[in-house]
Amino acid sequence: MSADPSQWDRDQIISRIDTSVPHSARVWNYCAGGSDWYEVDKQLVDQLLADYPSAAGLAVASRQFLGRAVRHLVREAGVRQFLDIGTGLPTGDNTHQVAQRHAPDARIVYVDNDPLVLLHAEALLTSTPEGATVYIEGDVRDPDTVLAAARETLDFEQPIALMLLSMLGHIEPGPAAELVQEYMSRLPSGSYLVTCDSIDSPAMVELNVHYAASGAAPYYVRSREDLAATAKGLEILPPGIGPIPEWHPDTAAPAPADQMDQWGLVARKP
C-alpha cells in the first residue's frame, strides 16, 4: 500500500474491519483510554477486568514504558532511527512524538497489518521538517518485506531501535524469539531492542484463556526465560528484565499494582 494517504481507498480499508469479534489493537486502545474501539471490544474488556482487575493498568504501563525507553535511547544512547512494529492505534506520545521532541532529526517507520490502524495512520504521518515519519502496512512475520520497505526511510548503516511492544504475544514464544533474533541479525551494530509482554502470572494465564475464548486472536503470555530469549546475543541494559514500571521510572513512588504483570527489557546489539 502506498505511504501516501491521499492514494488509499478508504472504503476498501473499512470493508476489511471485522466488528463481530474483539481485536487486540482496539482492545488495547480501549484499555489505554482511547476512542477507537467497538462495543464488542468494550464488552470483553469490561468483563475481563471485572474478573481480573490486576490487568487494568497494563496498556497504560506499556505506553509509559515506550515513552521512557524512546527518550532514553534518544538522549542517552544517541539513537535517531526507530522501527516500530505492531504500532497499534495512535494515542498520546507516539514513538515519533517522543523521539522528535528530543531529536527533531529522528526518523521513524511504523508497521502494522490492522486495517483500523491503517485507517488512522494519518495521525502518525506527522513529522518535524528535519526528521521523517512513515507508515508501512506489513506483517511482523515477514521480515524480508518489512525491512526492505524500512530501508527506504532508515539508514541501515546507523543504529536502529526495534520496538515490539505488547504485540509478540500473538506469536508463540519460541517462534517469536527466533523472529526477533532474525530482525536483530539484520540491523547494524549499536542497534537496540525494546520489547514487553504480559508475564505468565496465574491471573494473566487465566485472563488470556478467556480472551481467546471470545473469538479474538490468542495471546500467549511470556515467562522471564521467553523474554530473555528475544534478546539472545544482546546486551540487556540495567535494570534488566522485569516489570516495565520499574524500568527507569520518572518518580520514586511505587507503581500501581495493576501495571506489574507487563514485563520487558531494552537491549543493545554489540
UniProtKB/TrEMBL annotation:
A single GO BP annotation from the record? methylation
Task: Answer whether the UniProt record assigns the keyword Transferase to this protein.
Answer: yes
User: SUPFAM superfamilies annotated for this entry?
Assistant: S-adenosyl-L-methionine-dependent methyltransferases (SSF53335)
Q: Which UniProt keywords apply?
A: Methyltransferase, Transferase
Which Pfam family, an example, fits this chain?
Methyltransf_19
Give one GO molecular function term: methyltransferase activity
Keyword set includes Transmembrane helix: no
Query: What is the name of the protein in this document?
Result: SAM-dependent methyltransferase
Cite the source lineage.
Bacteria, Bacillati, Actinomycetota, Actinomycetes, Kitasatosporales
